[in-house]
Specification:
Elements: E1 15-22, H1 34-60, E2 65-70, H2 79-82, E3 87-91, H3 97-109, E4 114-118, H4 127-136, E5 142-146, E6 152-158, H5 179-190, E7 194-196
């Protein structure tokens, strides 16, 4: 089902980039980091990761960038992006994470041959990796960047299999270490060809803060929180 990803593929164009984001509001952003950073510190880090992820998407020069947000594209936290002509703001739609991701990918695949969807929690996700994931979709139905905690930080899909994309998100225990294992089983059952790039850490819990660049840490914390 899967095959190893190469690192030398040429970049491709006309790939929709969908960044999933929550408004970086104290008390509701990165709540599992509040114990280490405080509510304001966790929100400040969330804002830093949001800005970095959008900049990374734009730097890939693959195609249109959509910032798909919750709770509302008109939220003040997204005001800076509303004035950037390179970024389209859209609302997340659906009842759960899987449904929201499925809907966002299918909307994009109506207009472009391939789409990548990823969150803002992985500082290590680079524009080079985005280009690699897009290039690998020329020979595969879906592409993933797994997360080291058992989930994944990126999913990409080809328009050629848009009708089967929904099966990828059915019956997944989101937020657990079973996400990637269950997803592989769904892919195999659907007969979809997938490729996985090297796994990367995402930033969800205090022990993940060791993967955050030191100059991103909230100043009030005096540097990096202990792992």
């Amino acid at each position: 089902m899967t095959s190893p990803a190469s690192t030398g593929s040429q970049p491709v164009t006309r790939t929709a980039l969908i960044v999933f984001a929550r408004a970086p509001v104290p008390g509701s952003a990165k709540t599992r980091l509040i114990s280490a950073l405080g509510a304001d510190g966790a929100a400040a880090l969330a804002r830093r990761m949001l800005d970095h992820t959008v900049a990374t998407a734009l730097a890939s020069e693959l195609g249109p960038v959509t910032l798909c947000v919750t709770p509302d594209p008109c939220h003040p936290a997204f005001a800076a992006f509303a004035t950037d002509a390179r970024v389209r703001l859209d609302a997340q739609q659906g009842r759960g994470l899987g449904d929201r991701m499925r809907r966002a990918l299918l909307r994009a695949l109506h207009t472009v041959p391939r789409a990548l969807l990823f969150g803002t929690d992985c500082p290590a996700l680079s524009s080079m990796m985005l280009r690699e994931a897009a290039a690998r979709l020329d020979g595969h139905d879906l592409a993933f960047v797994p997360a080291t905690d058992g989930g994944y930080v990126l999913v990409g899909a080809s328009a050629a299999v848009a009708d089967r994309v929904p099966q990828t998100f059915d019956g997944i225990d989101w937020g657990t270490d079973r996400v990637m294992v269950q997803t592989r089983a769904r892919l195999e059952a659907a007969g979809l060809r997938s490729v996985e790039l090297p796994a990367l850490p995402d930033i969800d819990r205090p022990e993940d803060l060791r993967w955050v660049p030191s100059d991103w840490m909230p100043r009030s914390q005096g540097g990096r929180a202990p792992a």
